[in-house]
Amino acid sequence: MGWPAERVPFIGLTGGMGAGKSTALVVAGELGAATLSTDEVVHELLATEELRDLLVERLGRDVAPQGSVDRGAVAARVFERPEDRDWLEGVLWPRVGRKLAEWRTWVEATDCPPSTAVVEVPLLFEAGMEDFFDFTIAVVAEESLRDQRAGRRGHQAVAERDVRQLTQEEKSQRATFTIRNDGTPDELKAELSRILATIGDNQPD
């Protein structure tokens, strides 16, 4: 049985660094899904005066030297101080959740709603946001391949950046679906297409 016309399946897409979740989000858009990245939402939030002022009050003026938030300076500060990292997550995640709810309402209110709506959330399970979605997809890949991809983007080793994340195995176990992204772009697209078709044919509980 299909979904009601006003109800668009809401899918959370996650995965570790270098697994290919951002690529999968682009592919989902090519397959007709409405897409959104929570990284972009966070960037928009950090550009607001409200968040800038909160960050300066907590972390000091060095995180906004020219009146705008320096995301690199914020990341460096909270990486070194777990209590500041926890504070920042407590500030950001509820606001991200509200933005996602607004976006979902907008998607479902459009004249021609998409077959699915896919949101990339790197820390989906870590943030306790799984109940926000009808389905979740974890993108996983071999560790050596993840390191290669991260290196090409100028990031340090995946293992060092993953300390705050669940393991790939844990993400896979908790997700509704898992995609292995060790192969070609066409293989990724075929697997994602299959999963989105399966979701589109099923009602939520």
Keywords summarizing the entry:
five-stranded parallel β-sheet, single chain, globular, Rossmann fold, alpha/beta
Say which CATH homologous superfamily of the domain at 8-33 and 114-205 is assigned: P-loop containing nucleotide triphosphate hydrolases
The CATH first-level class of the domain at 8-33 and 114-205 comes to Alpha Beta
**Largest sheet, strands/sense/barrel:** 5 strands, parallel
The CATH architecture designation of the domain at 8-33 and 114-205 is 3-Layer(aba) Sandwich
Helical content band: 40-55%
Strand order of the largest sheet: 2-3-1-4-5
CA-to-CA gap between the ends? 12 Å
So what's the overall shape?
Answer: globular
CATH topology of the domain at 8-33 and 114-205: Rossmann fold
The share of residues in extended strands comes to 5-15%
Please identify the structural class as seen in this structure: alpha/beta
Number of helices: 9
User: Which runs of at least 5 residues are low in confidence (pLDDT < 50)?
Assistant: 1-5, 155-160
Please give the radius of gyration in angstroms.
Answer: 18 Å
Average residue pLDDT: 88
What is the N-to-C order of secondary-structure elements (H for helix, E for strand)? EHEHHHHEEHHHEH
The total of beta strands comes to: 5
What would your notes on this structure say?
Helix 2 crosses helix 5 (82-109) and helix 4 packs across helix 5 (82-109). The chain is 51% helix and 12% strand. It is of the alpha/beta class and 205 residues long. The protein has helices at 21-30, 38-46, 49-59, 71-80, 82-109, 143-152, 158-161, 168-174, 185-200; strands spanning 10-15, 34-37, 117-120, 135-140, 177-180. Mean pLDDT is 88; it is low at 1-5 and 155-160. It is globular and about 50 Å long. The chain has a domain at 8-33 and 114-205: P-loop containing nucleotide triphosphate hydrolases (Rossmann fold, 3-Layer(aba) Sandwich). The chain has a five-stranded parallel sheet, with helices on both faces.
